Amino acid sequence: MANPIAITDDSFDKEVLKSDVPVLVDFWADWCGPCKIIAPLVEELAGEYEGKIKFAKLDIDANPKVATTYGIRGIPTLLIFSDGSPIDQVVGAVPKTVIKGRLEKAIA
Q1: Among residues 65, 2, 52, 53, which one has the least CA distance to residue 25?
Q2: Is the bond preceding 76 in cis, omega lying within 30 degrees of 0?
Q3: What does the CA dihedral 65, 66, 70, 71 come to, rounded to 10 degrees?
Q4: What string of DSSP letters covers 72-91?
């Protein structure tokens, strides 16, 4: 199973903005309970969409620059990027079907 890659403020540009496939970025923090609830869902989806969508996790406490740039105010926030721009956003612990629906739109 493909796992989300850990990204940082420094690797964000290369891994997300310059990616040749859509990227789901999971903005999270260690202290965030709802983040722990959706983490397994994101890992499952990473396996299901391997080769179609890249999955990444960004710890907002260790990497505040990117979170600030994209106005992340609540976590977990999932931002879906395509061609270097955010195209969709999901905030909070939502069911897997909600995330899957957004991913399907991103690759349609």
Answers
A1: 53
A2: yes
A3: -40
A4: --SSSEEEEEETTEEEEEEE
Distance CA 9, CA 11 (A): 6
Give me the phi and psi of 28, to 5 degrees please: -145, 175
Token duo for residue 10: 């420094």
User: Are 36 and 93 spatial neighbours (Cβ–Cβ below 8 Å)?
Assistant: no
- Phi and psi angles of residue 54, each rounded to the nearest 5 degrees, phi first: -90, 140
Per-residue burial over 46-65, b if 16 or more Cβ lie within 10 Å, else e, is: beebeeebbbbbbbbeebee
pLDDT digits (tens, 9 = 90+) for 9-49: 999 999 999 999 999 999 999 999 999 999 999 999 999 99
In terms of pTM, does the model score above 0.70? yes
For residues 29 and 60, the answer to whether their CB atoms sit within 8 Å is yes
Catalytic residue annotation: 32, 35
